[in-house]
Amino acid sequence: MALLISWRPSASNISSFPFILKKTSPKSAKMGFLNNNISCSATSTMAGQSQRKLPILLFDVMDTIVRDPYYNEIPAFFRMPMKELLECKHPTTWIEFEKGLITEDECAQRFFKDGRPFDLEGLKNCMRRAYSYIEGVEGLLNSLKENGYEIHAFTNYPIWYQMIEDKLHLSNYLCWTFCSCIFGKRKPDPDFYLEVVKHLNVEASNCIFVDDRMRNVEAAVEVGLNGLQFKNADLLRKDLSLLGVNISTNDNPDLAECPS
């Protein structure tokens, strides 16, 4: 089991359940909204919250739901080992692209420190081919959806998240609500987590955040969310079950939709 949480489970599970109680009161944060046809708003009124199924699930995408081509396919595309690629690429360009501060063309122009040109469309095609669900995760997302849970992406990624959607159709299971390229912030910036909580209009303790990077999970716990580090789909099923999340398959599911 690999988990880090701030939400106490039922008494029957406590003896085998490590937990960390860390909670701070969320401060005010500027709201951010997505304006595209593959995402949905996650705001709700306090009056309607009594009908909202909790907890709300927040998923990182790369290397949590989708295999990240960054470590293998991208170095191969540039025909250089990862170490050399890291030495050649500009240190902040990709981060700025993920925050939506620069365009795709600007990212291409500044990707390498020396400004060398490369085949941008070829790189994008390479990434499209590499995108795939991590084993077992699509079935888990489907089970969560069938059980009526509200699920949102909470990811550091540029506008190329639309390429992931076009190939894998993650919106069948979740809303692309919290993308760094729209909010202008990246995990583990605490302000990004606080904006998510404010946008959802729930207590942080009513959310479970899943990410493969422990640093991002720890940042979530610091602002009061429940955090789980992703290792593989089987372990995540067990960890979610320990938190009281129902993952059994329903014959006649009442599928959850992100509230508008």
Quick synopsis:
This protein is an alpha/beta fold and 260 residues long. The protein is built from 11 helices and 6 strands.
State the main characteristics.
260 residues, 6-stranded mixed beta sheet, alpha/beta, globular, 6 strands
3D structure, described in words:
This protein has 260 residues and is α/β, with parallel strands linked by helices. 34% of the residues lie in helices and 10% in strands. It is built from 11 helices and 6 strands. Helix 10 (214-222) links the parallel strand 5 (207-211) and strand 6. The longest helix has 11 residues, at 120-130. The model is unreliable at 6-37 and 41-49 (pLDDT under 50). This is Flavin mononucleotide hydrolase 1, chloroplatic-like.
Helix content: 25-40%
Helical segment tally? 11
Helix/strand order: EEHHHHHHEHEHHEHEH
What gap, in angstroms, lies between the N and C termini? 35 Å
Work out the number of β strands: 6
Average pLDDT confidence is: 84
How would you write the strand order of the largest sheet? 1-6-5-2-3-4
Q: Looking at the structure, what is the overall shape?
A: globular
Largest sheet: 6 strands, mixed
Report the uncertain regions. Answer: 6-37, 41-49
Radius of gyration: 19 Å
Q: Specify the structural class.
A: alpha/beta
Protein name: Flavin mononucleotide hydrolase 1, chloroplatic-like
